[in-house]
Write a structure and sequence with these properties.
By secondary structure, the chain is mostly beta strands. The protein contains 7 helices and 45 strands. Pfam families: PQQ_2.
Length: 614
């Protein structure tokens, strides 16, 4: 899902399959960028503490499940969040989670397009499958204007720019008309401010059929950026005023043979011609020039205080662009080009600067991600996600877990917004970074819990219950489960139990999924990790889990897995700060009863001391 920031992010073009793949990968990576401006609890005037915790600032509930509207992503800026819900849309003030307005439409689909000049632009698709664009006052919900394609556009002879998403700028919106034109729009009136033909683009597209029809265009906060390019000719960077379309400055670049890339963030422009990357400010000052390797890509993710931050993606080999080997963040002085420090970014996302802190989604083994709720197996694969935080000096904190399970929506000011599915709708949660004193026994990566707060998964069941189950079970602790988010625990967090008969029907596992900082966080995590809604990826329709709740905090469910869509019995239990999982290998009646019996037992044992005996 693209954030408002990413919608004005980057346009990239390649003539080789390798570069095309990298462009797509870069776009997907951009989705997961997290930026945090962090102080000691957000209090100004105090010395900054390196943040090591993420706490819930607010949450907002909608009555429509996010998976049911997954093709209509929410968008946000530094102050507002627009959430589509079929024929309605909620606009939330991200400073406090307060509902500002509810928008309504009779269109087939009603999608937020982004914020510009304090106005929310939306795209409405009618039952004739044609798009139109509207603008709303997000505070009052009043529609300001509505534009539909002209008759000429409907006949594919005019400017059908309403079918494309605009580049989002703080002061306006710019559309690509599809016929070599850019169209600048006044967000508050809907008036076309200007149109400008880019002749070099259309000429190149006619002579080079492999070059995509879309322009190499991007946007910073206040400028439209266009890269004129055609193989064998000099590339030229043009920067325009979004208010009138006039050229502000331009730079001649070298001739390009194989590839060209353009990317933009709020305060920096990056352009790579073959193996040379150049980074400019909005005003045209060149910040740095650097060569790229044949098996790496480098692009800017921001600039702050005279330091340019570059993200580098390295591949295992030039012939295999899918073999991503590493991602690295570079901090480079803009005046000298000297590298101040570098850090590995892990396998997940990129860091981005905001004030004195950089942050990214961390590579967290077991981090929950969207449809993983429908994955069966080791319940450690359904833990909360995490972020890594870095200060301006390059000192990186441990991975900081999210207090909720969910998927990243975007960021608004100093807040990370996460989306979670629940029984009766979708919850959007804003996370604020803070600082908590930690020690070796209570590392930041465990989110406020101590190592010994995690109970021994084998001892949670105990000999008495195993005897009551009527089978001769053998405990099989999972040695690898002693490590959670990089922290070594004193006990295994997963224990398998197998009958001596060797039958697959006599196998089940118990998992300590999470030890939350408090009971409320445990409940929030639990309700957002259960497979509510439907899973369209299973094929042959939309499958839903069969969920029952025999006792407060106990959730029993079965769902279909793998290509054969086998049914599997499962349970999630929350008791106090603890979240437990119980799973088996099938959904036979006896197995369902066994899972239920163990789950009910765990609901009573959740508050027992860590490592309590049998």
């Amino acid at each position: 899902m693209l954030t408002d920031h990413e919608r004005r992010g980057s346009g990239m073009v390649s003539t080789s399959a390798r570069r095309a793949w990298r462009v797509g990968c870069g776009t997907l990576l951009g989705v997961s960028l997290l930026a945090l401006a962090v102080g000691d609890g957000g209090t100004s005037g105090r010395p900054l503490e390196r943040p090591n915790t993420l706490e819930v600032a607010w949450s907002f509930h909608t009555p429509v499940r996010a998976l049911d509207v997954s093709d209509l992503p929410a968008v946000l800026n530094d102050r507002m969040l627009a959430i589509p819900q079929g024929k309605t849309m909620s606009v939330v003030d991200t400073r406090d989670g307060r509902l500002l307005s509810t928008l309504r439409s009779s269109a087939r689909t009603f999608t937020p397009g982004g914020f510009s000049d304090g106005v929310l632009l939306t795209v409405e698709q009618g039952h004739d499958m044609r798009n139109s664009v509207s603008a709303y006052d997000p505070v009052t919900g009043r529609r300001l204007w509505h534009r539909t394609p002209s008759p000429a556009a409907r006949q594919a002879k005019g400017d059908d720019w309403l079918t494309t998403a605009p580049l989002q700028l703080d002061s306006g919106a710019v559309f690509w008309a599809g016929d070599g034109r850019l169209v600048g729009l006044a967000p508050r009136t809907g008036a076309v401010r200007w149109t400008k033909r880019i002749p070099a683009l259309t000429a190149c597209e006619k002579s080079e059929p492999d070059v995509p029809a879309s322009p190499n265009a991007a946007a910073t906060a206040d400028r439209v950026v266009v890269l004129e390019r055609c193989p064998g000719r000099p590339a030229e960077l043009q920067v325009m005023d979004p208010g009138n379309g006039e050229l502000v400055w331009k730079k001649k670049l070298g001739r390009w043979r194989e590839s060209v890339r353009l990317s933009a963030v709020r305060d920096a422009i990056g352009v790579a011609v073959d193996d040379e990357l150049r980074v400019f400010t909005e005003s045209g000052e060149e910040l740095l020039r650097r060569k790229e390797g044949r098996t790496s890509d480098l692009w800017p993710v921001g600039e702050d205080g005279g330091v340019v931050y570059l993200s580098e993606l390295r591949y295992g080999s030039e012939s295999d662009p899918g073999s991503v080997r590493s991602r690295t963040l570079h901090a480079v002085r803009a005046d000298t080009g000297k590298t101040l420090w570098t850090h590995s970014q892990g396998r997940v996302g990129n860091d981005e600067p905001a004030g004195d802190v950089l942050a990214a989604e961390a590579d967290a083994d077991g981090g929950y991600g969207g449809d993983l709720r429908w994955s069966v197996g080791d319940a450690r694969l359904q833990g909360p996600g995490a972020s890594s935080l870095t200060d301006a000096a390059g000192r990186r904190s441990a991975r900081v877990p999210w207090p909720v399970a969910g998927t990243f929506v975007g960021l608004s000011g100093q807040l990370i917004v996460v989306r979670s599915e629940e029984r009766d709708g979708t919850r959007y949660t804003a996370l604020r970074p803070g600082h908590r004193a930690v020690d070796e026994e209570r590392p930041a990566a465990l989110g406020g819990a101590g190592r010994r707060d995690w109970p021994d998964a084998c001892r949670l069941v105990g000999a008495r219950l195993l005897s009551e189950l009527g089978r001769d079970f053998v405990e099989l602790p999972v040695a690898s489960s002693r490590t959670v988010l990089g922290v070594r625990l004193p006990h295994p967090s997963v224990c398998r139990f197998a009958g001596k008969s060797g039958s697959v029907d006599d196998v089940f596992s118990v998992t300590v999924r999470w030890v939350a900082p408090d009971p409320e966080a445990a409940r929030t995590y639990t309700t957002s990790v259960i497979p509510w809604g439907c899973n369209p990826w299973l094929g042959r329709g939309c499958h839903t889990a069969e969920i029952t709740q025999p006792r407060r905090g106990v959730f029993l469910y079965t769902y279909r897995v793998n290509l054969r869509q086998d049914r599997v019995a499962h349970a999630t239990v929350v008791s106090g700060r603890y979240v437990f999982g119980v799973s088996a290998g099938n959904d036979k009646a006896a197995i369902r009863q066994l899972v239920r019996r163990v789950a009910m037992h765990l609901s009573q044992r959740g508050e027992a001391p860590a490592g309590a005996g049998r």
